[in-house]
Design goal:
The protein is α+β, with helices and mostly antiparallel strands. It contains 4 helices and 5 strands.
Length: 128
């Protein structure tokens, strides 16, 4: 499954995307990842478990990847316990909704994804 949020604001209002946002001025990248993940999804997984579940990370920096201008995106792939029930999530902050999507469903969502998030997720999943 992939955890997605539905954007509640422009640009991309109504489109599906990876949870995320911009760093606070004094914030380290992983701390910002954790903060944004919780703010937008209300994910109820202990931070220690999340930090221990990082399977891969990468930076996406194509100069034309965003209409918002030069945007560097640090992406973290978390691999949670396959045997466990999916944690509950709820859209919050600037996310209108949050949901777990099966990989089969995700594969048909390219037309409703924000900017290059579909290709980023496909890239990350190929490395898992």
């Amino acid at each position: 499954h992939v955890l997605l949020i539905q954007r509640g604001r422009f640009p991309g209002k109504g489109l599906w995307a990876m949870p995320g946002g911009f760093l606070d001025p004094t914030e380290r990248i992983l701390d910002g990842v954790m903060r944004e993940l919780r703010e937008e999804t209300k994910l109820k997984v202990p931070e220690k478990v999340l930090r221990g579940s990082i399977a891969h990370k990468d930076v996406f920096d194509d100069v034309n990847r965003s209409l918002r201008g030069r945007t560097l995106t640090h992406v973290y792939l978390f691999k949670l316990d396959d045997a466990a029930e999916l944690p509950k999530v709820k859209g919050n902050d600037d996310a209108a909704a949050a949901k777990w999507v099966s990989l089969a469903e995700f594969n048909s969502m390219q037309s409703v994804m924000f900017e290059d998030h579909y290709s980023i997720i496909k890239n990350m999943l190929s490395r898992a």
